[in-house]
Amino acid sequence: MSTIQKTVRHKNLTPRQIVAELDKYIIGQDEAKRSVSIALRNRWRRMNADEEIRDEILPNNILLIGPTGVGKTEIARRLAKLADAPFIKVEASKFTEVGYVGRDVESMIRDLTDISVNMVKTEMQERVKEQAKEIVEDRILDILIPPVKQPPAESPGFQADDNDFNPDQASDQELNKRTREKFREKLRNGELEDRKIEVEVRKSSKSPMMQVFGPQGGMEEMGINLQDMLGNLGGQKKTKRNVTIEEARELLLEEEAEKLIDHDAAAQEALERVQKHGIVFIDEIDKVAESSNNGKGGGGPDVSRQGVQRDLLPIVEGSSVSTKHGMVKTDHILFIGSGAFHVSKPSDLIPELQGRFPIRVELNSLTEEDFFDILTKPKNALTKQYQAMMASEGVEVEFTENAIKEVASIAAQVNERVENIGARRLHTILSSLLDELLFAIPDDISSGEITIDREYVNKQLDNLVKDKDLSQYIL
């Protein structure tokens, strides 16, 4: 069984379990969670289906439709973490412009492959960490106590199991060996962590001249390959750094672990992982749809929206993309499209592309009650994040229920009056609410407990909310 299959078996969550995990971070949007949970479980089902039909089972790509800030991106990101799969988020709009600004549509698969390679290498480095630690220990010892070469003739002064060691009769090599063992023990006991040493580490350098190949269609991959080739001319560059032994361990551990892994095997495993479990989240896909209202969707003559869709179509349908690590087949990559579709409609996408996103899920706008739940229930709720930051300074902050309800109410009001940006409004409101407090810590407030109640919220935000022009820019 391959490492990929082991990973899938380990992550074989049922759709109900996947939804339960998503509920920890995302409020509401039950239909969307249900759809993505089925899509994720279907990948496990395909990998365990009969081999004769396995390759014929294609992923059910999903189109998430809803206004900004309702959780579309967060659903896709959490899904990728649950699957432990290579994941990339791209904006469809960056593929719309021509010339040096635009990017080749295939670059999303190249970027996804790079992410997968880094994932696999990190996992492999973790597996060889103990072996790398021993090598790093020897390298640090070589700097502290350089080894003495073995003399031509053996000296009888010292043996490993000899308790009657006589330093007068021992050779330099034997004395050196004994000293090294003493220092090795000190290293393992952490007695030398603050001592400074000079280490030689690899220097990563990228040639600035390669920027000329910037993202322009097929030249993009050519630029990457030339950069790699020219970067390796003359061998790997090294630089000397004066650091503590504690810092040296970290620097050398990464370097030695990388030497121990099989890079070819890592690339092959990464390619397999991309092809079987990769997830591409295409945000703002509605921006490349030509609105039926005006024919061109406001794009102008320099933006070929249909052209981008037709470039995207073979990748979503299933084709082979050339990357610097090898060819990648996109047949079984899961594509999740996302867009507000305010101006255009999903039916404005070209028919072939519409057919490749068979699952359509409409996400609901967030209500005041949703904002309250977002501020209290998720494991990574904003209130919990601010509490953790201020606790690091020794200040305990408590939000009353009425205070959070007031923040939720203000967020709903501002979204209604100015522009509806969903849960993102909570970021700006909490930032303004806690601005004075965050500035005062730790100079004016270095410890103690602070309670944020409704009166405090109204005091800090009342003027901003009442002034429509000001709230438009501040909140």
Automatic annotation (TrEMBL):
<comment type="function">
    <text>ATPase subunit of a proteasome-like degradation complex; this subunit has chaperone activity. The binding of ATP and its subsequent hydrolysis by HslU are essential for unfolding of protein substrates subsequently hydrolyzed by HslV. HslU recognizes the N-terminal part of its protein substrates and unfolds these before they are guided to HslV for hydrolysis.</text>
</comment>
<keyword id="KW-0143">Chaperone</keyword>
<dbReference type="GO" id="GO:0016887">
    <property type="term" value="F:ATP hydrolysis activity"/>
</dbReference>
<feature type="binding site">
    <location>
        <position position="283"/>
    </location>
    <ligand>
        <name>ATP</name>
    </ligand>
</feature>
<keyword id="KW-0963">Cytoplasm</keyword>
<feature type="binding site">
    <location>
        <begin position="69"/>
        <end position="74"/>
    </location>
    <ligand>
        <name>ATP</name>
    </ligand>
</feature>
<comment type="similarity">
    <text>Belongs to the ClpX chaperone family. HslU subfamily.</text>
</comment>
<dbReference type="InterPro" id="IPR050052">
    <property type="entry name" value="ATP-dep_Clp_protease_ClpX"/>
</dbReference>
<dbReference type="InterPro" id="IPR003593">
    <property type="entry name" value="AAA+_ATPase"/>
</dbReference>
<dbReference type="Pfam" id="PF07724">
    <property type="entry name" value="AAA_2"/>
</dbReference>
<feature type="binding site">
    <location>
        <position position="27"/>
    </location>
    <ligand>
        <name>ATP</name>
    </ligand>
</feature>
<comment type="subunit">
    <text>A double ring-shaped homohexamer of HslV is capped on each side by a ring-shaped HslU homohexamer. The assembly of the HslU/HslV complex is dependent on binding of ATP.</text>
</comment>
<dbReference type="InterPro" id="IPR004491">
    <property type="entry name" value="HslU"/>
</dbReference>
<keyword id="KW-0067">ATP-binding</keyword>
<dbReference type="GO" id="GO:0043335">
    <property type="term" value="P:protein unfolding"/>
</dbReference>
<dbReference type="InterPro" id="IPR027417">
    <property type="entry name" value="P-loop_NTPase"/>
</dbReference>
<dbReference type="InterPro" id="IPR003959">
    <property type="entry name" value="ATPase_AAA_core"/>
</dbReference>
<keyword id="KW-0378">Hydrolase</keyword>
<dbReference type="GO" id="GO:0008233">
    <property type="term" value="F:peptidase activity"/>
</dbReference>
<dbReference type="Pfam" id="PF00004">
    <property type="entry name" value="AAA"/>
</dbReference>
<keyword id="KW-0645">Protease</keyword>
<protein>
    <recommendedName>
        <fullName>ATP-dependent protease ATPase subunit HslU</fullName>
    </recommendedName>
</protein>
<dbReference type="InterPro" id="IPR019489">
    <property type="entry name" value="Clp_ATPase_C"/>
</dbReference>
<feature type="binding site">
    <location>
        <position position="352"/>
    </location>
    <ligand>
        <name>ATP</name>
    </ligand>
</feature>
<feature type="domain" description="AAA+ ATPase">
    <location>
        <begin position="58"/>
        <end position="363"/>
    </location>
</feature>
<feature type="region of interest" description="Disordered">
    <location>
        <begin position="147"/>
        <end position="180"/>
    </location>
</feature>
<dbReference type="GO" id="GO:0009376">
    <property type="term" value="C:HslUV protease complex"/>
</dbReference>
<feature type="domain" description="Clp ATPase C-terminal">
    <location>
        <begin position="366"/>
        <end position="466"/>
    </location>
</feature>
<keyword id="KW-0547">Nucleotide-binding</keyword>
<dbReference type="GO" id="GO:0005524">
    <property type="term" value="F:ATP binding"/>
</dbReference>
<dbReference type="GO" id="GO:0036402">
    <property type="term" value="F:proteasome-activating activity"/>
</dbReference>
<feature type="binding site">
    <location>
        <position position="424"/>
    </location>
    <ligand>
        <name>ATP</name>
    </ligand>
</feature>
